[in-house]
Amino acid sequence: MKVLVLLVLGIYGYGVWKLWTGFNRTNFSRSLPNRIYLSLLWPALIVANKSYRKNFTRALKGR
Fold it and tell me: pLDDT tens digit string along 11-61?
């Protein structure tokens, strides 16, 4: 159980870090509150928003 929790937290943290570092490759507004909000809510936004998924992919892959 502890391993699963650590794995989920690791994946979540990796997503936050990748979006934060690749944020300049997206077409999101460059404000700090927006950057924090979009980085922290990435799992829910990926499921709910097609445009966010495209931008998240750009942040991850550099396209």
Answer: 999 999 999 999 999 999 999 999 999 999 999 999 999 999 999 999 988
Token pair 């990796």 in the structure block, residue: 14
- Residue among 2, 35, 34, 3 nearest 17 (CA): 35
Both tokens of 19, joined, read 């979006």
| Residues in the chain, overall count | 63
Residues 37 and 16: beta-carbon distance below 8 Å: no
Provide the H-helix boundaries in 1-63: 2-21, 32-40, 42-48, 50-61
**Sign of dihedral through CA atoms 17, 54, 7, 44?**
positive
Q: How far apart are CA 42 and CA 34, in angstroms?
A: 12
